[in-house]
Amino acid sequence: xxxxxxxxxxxxxxxxxxxxxxxxxxxxxxxxxxxIILSLLTMKEAARTSILARRWRNLWTLITSSLExxxxxxxxxxxxxxxxxxxxxxxxxxxxxxxxxxxxxKGATLDAFKVHFDxxxxxxxxxxxxxxxxxxKRVRRLKVDLEATRLKTEGCFLNQLPKCYSFPTECLCNxxxxxLTSLTLNYIDVTGENIExxxxxxxxxxxxRVSSSPxxxxxxxxxxxxxxxxxxxxxxxxxxxLEISAGNLAFFTYCGPKAKLRFxxxxxxxxxxxxxxxCGYISNKFNRRSFFSQVETLGLHFRLDAPVFFTNPNLRxxxxxxxxxxxTDRFTLLSCTSLIEACPLLHKFTLLFTWIxxxxxxxxRKRRSELPLKCLKEVxxxxxxxxxxxxxxxxxxxxxxxxxxxxxxxxxxxxxVNPWLEFxxxxxxxxxxxxxxxxxxxxxxxxxxxxxx
Length: 453
Prior knowledge:
Layout: H1 2-22, H2 31-38, H3 43-48, E1 66-70, H4 72-81, H5 87-104, E2 112-116, H6 124-136, E3 141-145, E4 165-166, E5 182-186, E6 188-189, H7 192-201, E7 207-211, E8 218-223, E9 230-234, E10 241-246, E11 251-255, E12 260-265, E13 271-275, H8 277-282, E14 297-301, E15 320-327, H9 337-341, E16 348-355, E17 378-382, H10 388-400, E18 406-410, H11 427-441, E19 449-452
Parallel strand pairs: 1-2, 2-3, 3-5, 4-6, 5-7, 7-9, 8-10, 9-11, 10-12, 11-13, 13-14, 14-15, 15-16, 16-17, 17-18, 18-19
């Protein structure tokens, strides 16, 4: 009898514990707390909570964290599978989706607002309303990416693509723009005057990226008191001049045509990336740009075949170097060794390339004189196929990186120079590249770790 009573008591306690665990401890919380919790979720996840109960139906519309309408995965499918006929139906769905959410949203402010899809000028009034909505909500991080889909014209210039949407100048008069901390505009027509207005009237702006804007011809980024830390000017094919004098600028990326770039006063600039036609131009003028002596992270993204670097660049403080370009076995990657050796403090070297031609038979080359890379600890080789060109540079690094601790070799057949272009190598080719990389790793210095992908 006592055992039975003891058992019943245990079962009762277990039942109570189970009820406590299954109890809804969230719903009784105040709305303000629930909205904070929902703000930690993505917009889609927060919207799904509307089916939980009547009380939850409209709570997600009060979130103040971010509204992100990112359909880049759909664009990737359309681009790489040649499904151009799907673009217009998806545009209609996308615009409807954004408009419905904005109509329902009741939050007083927004931390971030992002749209990313190929939207043409037939939806100009909708895009105008989206930007006005975000600024009215006192948005801090604004990203408007109207990426134009290139179905069969990956190498074309901007003037061959559909006409750009123009940023609504009336939004510049809204005093709420002075709250912006981050601004990204892609495939939007803005002028240098527009950008300079943002810089002058957004005292908290730290991140600015302008991409594929045909109206950007001349730009001045002036102000030692500017908070701007990140500046990216990418694929603005009509740009002719860019002058920079910014006391807090630390990260700068420029990819585009050969333009007049003048760095007046940039005392904190340590991370620089160049790409496009300008990259080939600047690679022979490192010694003529005094600010390069303060750069610690340098990226060079070439469009064409391996360039010939200047033999005595001024890169004495570079600790991380990243190079990207297309190659064939007709060229040698040893052309970049002069650049590597010009970085006496180099700690990490990354080389990403895409093969644009079939393997060719020629003898392996070796530099007549080589310098030890005493500080080089980490190497990343992306796009390794086991061809003559990449084997040459790998052997050079193995011979001279006397303190190498880690090397990562990526043999996957994908486009590492232009990630938005699909490139797939055969399985046999990938396996052969991996096997060659393993054999090559036998020449590594003792203690160096190999990571093969």
